[in-house]
Fold this sequence. Notes:
Three copies of one chain form a homotrimer.
Chain A: H1 25-37, E1 39-40, E2 44-45, E3 56-61, H2 67-78, E4 82-85, H3 96-108, E5 113-118, H4 123-130, E6 136-142, H5 148-162, E7 169-173, H6 180-191, E8 196-200, E9 216-218, H7 221-225, E10 230-233, H8 249-256, H9 260-263, E11 271-273, H10 286-289, H11 296-315, H12 322-328
Parallel strand pairs in A: 3-4, 3-5, 5-6, 7-8, 7-10, 8-9, 10-11
Antiparallel strand pairs in A: 1-2
Helix pairs in contact in A: 1-5, 1-11, 2-11, 5-6, 5-11
Amino acid sequence: MRRRNLQLDEHGRLRHLLTIEGLKRQQIVDILDTAESFITVGDQQVRKVPLLRGKTIVNLFFEASTRTLTTFELAAKRLSADVLKININTSATVKGESLLDMLQNLEAMQCDMFVVRHGDSGAAHLIAQHVAPHISVINAGDGRHAHPTQALLDIFTIRRHKGEFAPLTVAIVGDIMHSRVARSQIHALTTLGISDLRVIAPKTLIPAQVEGLGVHVYHDMKEGLHNADVVIMLRLQKERMQGALLPSEQEYFQGYGLTEEKLAVAKTDVMVMHPGPINRGVEIDSEVADGPRSVILEQVSNGIAVRMAVMSMVLGRPPMDKESEGAAQ
Amino acid sequence: MRRRNLQLDEHGRLRHLLTIEGLKRQQIVDILDTAESFITVGDQQVRKVPLLRGKTIVNLFFEASTRTLTTFELAAKRLSADVLKININTSATVKGESLLDMLQNLEAMQCDMFVVRHGDSGAAHLIAQHVAPHISVINAGDGRHAHPTQALLDIFTIRRHKGEFAPLTVAIVGDIMHSRVARSQIHALTTLGISDLRVIAPKTLIPAQVEGLGVHVYHDMKEGLHNADVVIMLRLQKERMQGALLPSEQEYFQGYGLTEEKLAVAKTDVMVMHPGPINRGVEIDSEVADGPRSVILEQVSNGIAVRMAVMSMVLGRPPMDKESEGAAQ
Amino acid sequence: MRRRNLQLDEHGRLRHLLTIEGLKRQQIVDILDTAESFITVGDQQVRKVPLLRGKTIVNLFFEASTRTLTTFELAAKRLSADVLKININTSATVKGESLLDMLQNLEAMQCDMFVVRHGDSGAAHLIAQHVAPHISVINAGDGRHAHPTQALLDIFTIRRHKGEFAPLTVAIVGDIMHSRVARSQIHALTTLGISDLRVIAPKTLIPAQVEGLGVHVYHDMKEGLHNADVVIMLRLQKERMQGALLPSEQEYFQGYGLTEEKLAVAKTDVMVMHPGPINRGVEIDSEVADGPRSVILEQVSNGIAVRMAVMSMVLGRPPMDKESEGAAQ
């Protein structure tokens, strides 16, 4: 018996989605392939499929969100699941004990999945450790730790445009230090064998030992963007920045805001990405955000297909018989 | 090529519903006929039809509302659509730029319809100008400008009781100046060829040049209600009244509140209407509101059928081939 | 013609569920049997049945609630009904008049059921007196008066474990005085012919003349729990307690909190119940709440089946023809 990843079941299949770390290349590719099946010819999504009919999905958002919450809700509805939005009474959940009581009650109501966003790193893991065997947990962002469905929709969008990952040069720009999105993107892209992954930020926004993750660090935009196939801009999370790590928004834009002029050093068919919502004129210029190389809105569309894929995969695992179990090992 | 109304598609069919102005008589009649098909014998509505299965309808209410929001939600659900209620974060939408970003994101999520209520006149038009070609916008009330589905349900209710519009005398009573409901009712009733349309209000609540719309102005209730077939009372929108346009509520009721005594000069089979919610004892006496000539609750019921009609018509337009296109011109 | 209970229709069938009082033994058993049909082998509920497709159920919660509101919402969705959650604007409903106007509007929208929770005793009755003939009202808790679905899920849970009610000794522990749950449980258990029903509480929390309801009063836990088959703990409703009826939480726990040590005098197969949410260390020790004799989470699961049963029974009454009507008298 080997020690198993918390997010995999006894057959090695995805049961929870908590983080990209520890997923095998093939598991990531399976998710992308499944997401592809939810996109039909002409970029029209299959709007309503009965895959999760009768299942109950609970959105537990302890942090405010519009885009992520809405796309999870739409993904669940388009899979024909029932969706429950719990109004989080923060006062009732300050003690971990009460949170666990609430979760046990939701389990007793035969809920099947918790989609969790929480300001504390590790919150989704903690919940996954305590849920009943039939329940799946999806991490919709925990503190500075991980945001796996965002990273998956990002690489899904890249694959739809570029095909292969190995030859690509991808630059992630902005507050790497505080970004759970960046962390998940780095794990996804390195697992997929990307040849040149770069992070670009001022020194104060680069975490120590980030090179250990397999990225190259740049502090200058024109150097970092040179010959890039993909540029991923991060949202400047003003509320997460403590103290004087940053100059003014204007100075930040001067140094690290993405403009057509800075982008000129990248490849001519460079893709510009952003997880949204964008701060126009802070981390990205409107001309770029709304320009022909931006795929920002396509990322939003793809987010629904990717979330449908993850939800249907973790809840749709058929029980395995002994023989196929043997074969799967 | 003639310049087309923003709310019509290239074949002249209803794509958005923003205002009654500019609709042809036949288009209005088509909506009423479709609404009729959602009412079955015995005033029982067909509760659930699969017409909009797989479609996503977004309620974007920037102004508080219970009745309108709820009937739009019920109409959408009874058409089997998925309904999304967006919690408007006013701080995120103070800049028009952010509002448009939010709309683009909802479009990217493959939403099909925005039902918009907003305190600013023209808000629904502005949104309709910017949405993608496959999206429809329904105006659920914009500032003092228009409230077309309310006017449609009102004339639908009149037609169910009176049949023909041409011979009718209809009096609209109250704050004509600030009422988007009155404005839409006037356009609907004049388009339908009503012979005698009256507005009754104190001088301070009558807009300049209102006669140009084809109405007769009265300042005295007994004169204005004389021989009326239909009386439409408006809600006194206290929050919209600036300064000292009005005397006290009691004085207003004295002059313009609808009582059995004032109603005695109308036809004996007069219908009493009100868009709700009613201010009892301010613009209408409870004896009248709850009396046998009141159709106020019937208006609410009809509102669902009319909204189902509009929603299914704008989203259900089949693509036209060249031949039928020619025929439609 | 005999005077009929407000909650029964002209054929004696359940139309509303307002209180357990006045229900016949067979009516209660019918509800339990129907609930049983919603539980399949292996405690898996049938998740989605089309029984109430096309029906609209409105949750009118004037008091905060998570568990009860959520289980009613889930029960409705699993019966395929459309569910409407009304945001109660307390300012709009301070006058009973406005509340009734709001209800009439919801009726006009062809809603079929109001699930009502309200801080005033009698609120659900008041609403039931005013609704149109086709509408059903379910009391989800009114003041200190009644909480009938909670009592039904409690006896349903007891029956699943113990089978017969007659031979049982059941002890209800805690704030009997202010508890609508206790009141409904006492009516249910006495109607089912339980032989020994006990309430245990300090004198200040026992209502006068409670013995008239058929219960035995104890002020000492070890005496009251002696030989008990079932112990039902009540939540200490701190917000409902006025003045100095109680000592400190610690002293209360000392006297009336359920611990393994106090529970030792009960039968060895005693069931421990609690309507939730539990106050750990106040009315119940965590060791007991999470222990093998606790069925607290099973109560939550059963709550969905019982609410599905009540909803489908009151809305699913087929019209009776003359003959069967005669037979039913």
